[in-house]
Design brief:
With 214 residues, the chain is mainly beta. It has three helices and ten strands.
């Protein structure tokens, strides 16, 4: 479903479902990231699985993610100090455990423990495309956006052990004549880099909610 014109980056509040037909395959990105901390017993089996998991999210879990319907329930608001906050409840079908993300657009680094990705630290901010560093070689982070204002949202996440980094730019694109909320994602490790475009269908508004900051 198209994003209504009144829903912009200034307020993404609502329910969004990933459009798997229009989105790029996320499996190559998931293979690069993840947490190796899984309670697996048996020395040889455990060693083999941990070796695989250290390379990223396990094969079975990646396949489940590929089959699941992923929903973002977003609440966006400003605090008394005029900072923009974006709280996201991420849920998925197929028995995949969801997670909660709290972003403050001030570029301060904050820690977070994620079920799938482990211990990470992240930072988010408003940014103009002219100020954005894009070393993808084809302008992936900057291209295809609808011009709906000077600023976009940048979200950067790094695993605490430095195994990988993820850089995302959020905005809106017109795809097949329809306006969608889109994220351009680039994941890097020491020896590799993968990118994907994630496209979301708008499913409806949420009741305004301003949860307390932890």
């Amino acid at each position: 479903m198209a994003a209504p014109p009144e829903v912009t980056l200034q307020d993404l509040s609502g329910q969004w479902v990933m459009n798997k037909t229009l989105s790029d395959n996320v499996d190559p990105l998931l293979a690069m990231v993840g947490s190796p901390d899984h309670p697996i017993r048996g020395s040889k089996l455990r060693l083999r699985l941990l070796t695989t998991l250290k390379q990223g999210v396990g094969w079975l879990q990646r396949k489940l993610v590929g089959l699941a319907t992923v929903t973002l329930s977003i609440s966006q608001y400003k605090s008394e100090d005029s900072l923009t906050h974006i709280d996201i409840e991420v849920t998925a079908t197929g028995g995949i455990k969801g997670t909660t993300e709290h972003r403050t657009l001030d570029w301060e680094v904050r820690g977070h423990k994620d079920q799938m990705f482990g211990e990470v630290k992240g930072q988010s901010r408003w940014i103009k495309l002219a100020e954005l560093e894009d070393d993808t070689g084809d302008g992936f982070l900057k291209k295809a956006w609808l011009d709906e204002g000077e600023q976009y949202i940048q979200s950067s996440v790094t695993r605490v052990d430095g195994a990988w980094t993820s850089n995302q730019i959020w905005g809106f694109e017109e795809i097949q004549g329809i306006r969608y909320y889109v994220r351009h994602v680039v994941v890097r490790t020491k020896n590799d880099r993968k990118k994907a475009r994630l496209v979301y269908d708008f499913k409806g508004m949420l009741t305004p909610n301003k949860p307390d900051e932890l």
